[in-house]
Write a structure and sequence with these properties.
278 residues; alpha/beta; 2-enoyl-CoA Hydratase, Chain A, domain 1; Lyase 2-enoyl-coa Hydratase, Chain  A, domain 2; 2 domains; six-stranded mixed β-sheet; 11 helices
């Protein structure tokens, strides 16, 4: 299926999704908010890949929300009733939030390869990914504050859990640009690469390492890390025990040891596609 805002290729267990509007700095137009969750959910539910990589063409990863979303994206309710309009706006924002939540909820890990700017909603997107990597020219900016609004598509519930709270507050309050080196120092990105090409090579190498492992084990890791982030240690330990009691697969453990002894790549079953209807 063709998309307006990105290209999608799947090979060797890796789904490679690349933003393809470099002339517009890969800003998020109305079509983007429909297309991204559609593509990610299809990969997740269809088990068509073992890992998802997000990257972008051009100078910048993304300039964030495109002004057309405000002008033609339905943010303004067709009514003069302030309360009714506010209720409508709330549901519209929640729909935008769901776009990035699709990345967090995907069964597969999602890796972001970021060059140039990740601005405004680009920070929302990045923090919804499992891991973030950057080239030396990358920078991050909670731009919404500088244009008179409070970021509302996912930054705040995620950013302060990825980096120290003080830095999340500083980024939000000042709308300053945080360069790649500082982003690595505070834990916003895992690694910084010398160039865009090195970034893509490095992230794809990490993706291939993930894809070589048991998809069931990797999906369990993602689910349990997300759960641990949002729950107490005691609750998480109980959930991990229940998860492994139900889904620990002895065949995968055996295959990993046999493959190592035979000096070959291990062969694991893919996740099963989720049927959309009974």
């Amino acid at each position: 299926m063709g998309y307006e805002c990105f290209t999608l290729d799947i090979a060797d267990g890796v789904a490679y999704l690349r933003f393809c509007r470099p002339d517009k700095f890969n800003s998020f137009i109305p079509a983007f908010w429909r297309e991204l969750p559609e593509a990610v959910n299809e990969i997740s539910e269809g088990a068509g890949a073992r890992v998802i990589v997000l990257s972008a063409e051009g100078k910048h990863f993304t300039a964030g929300m495109d002004i057309s979303v405000f002008m033609e994206g339905g943010l303004k309710a067709p009514t003069e009733n302030r309360q009714v309009a506010a209720e409508h706006f709330r549901h519209t924002v929640k729909a935008l939030q769901d776009t990035f939540s699709a990345l967090e909820n995907a069964r597969q890990p999602v890796l972001a390869a970021i060059q140039g700017g990740a601005v405004g909603a680009g920070v929302d997107l990045a923090t919804a990914c499992d891991c973030r990597y950057a080239s030396e020219d990358a920078f991050f900016c909670v731009q919404e504050t500088a244009v008179g609004m409070t970021a509302d598509v996912g930054t705040f519930p995620r950013l302060a859990k990825v980096i120290p709270e003080g830095w999340a507050r500083q980024m939000a309050y000042t709308a300053e640009r945080v360069p790649a080196a500082k982003a690595k120092e505070i834990g916003l990105v895992n690694e910084v690469f010398d160039s865009h090409d090195a970034l893509l090579d490095g992230v794809m190498d990490i993706a291939r390492k993930i894809a070589a492992h048991s998809p069931l084990a990797v999906a369990g890791c993602k689910r349990l890390i997300n759960y641990a982030r949002d729950h107490s240690t005691a609750d998480t330990l109980d959930y991990i025990a229940l998860w492994n009691a139900a889904m620990l697969r002895g065949e995968d453990i055996m295959e990993s040891y046999i493959a190592k002894s035979e000096k070959r790549e291990a062969r694991f079953d893919d996740l099963t596609a989720i049927k959309k209807s009974l």
